[in-house]
Amino acid sequence: MKPLYWAILLLALGLLVWLISRQQRKRTGLPGGALVYSDSGYMQAVPKPLYDPELELVGKPDYLLRIDHDVVVPVELKSGRAPNSPWDSHVVQLAAYCHLVERNFGNRPPYGLIQYQDKSFRLPYTEEQEQRLRALVNEMRQAERRITANRSHQSAARCRGCGFSQICDQRILS
Q1: CA 74 to CA 172: how far, in whole Å?
Q2: pTM, to two decimals
């Protein structure tokens, strides 16, 4: 086969791969942008966690995308199918990542993304979201200082997965 045919074949294959990747990105609902952070170990070593000493908050978003020269947004991947609206715990987790992005990159992200298997949600990072996050962190810090905590569920599986199960006087035995 002549070199010209090989070049045309490779060019056609490259174009096909590019079109498929573009179509898949559109289906996910994720914006275009450069990947600047990945907790997956894919394409780079797993980076250090993001940290805010003021709130003593540490986190590792699944991805950070640079969508503009100075705008970075967090992307949180979830393995399940999308609910009608994002779970509250996922919303708070994303707000924490937005806060950490602002502290570590110097610019406030206008939004963050939660990507479920079949749908993504673009959630604005508002002052209200930040205040909600700060109130929750404050409530958690106060709970840490108390001698006892009150279990808020009846699930033995949740107790087994809890980091405090060995010292909790309210754990559910199974």
Answers
A1: 36
A2: 0.71
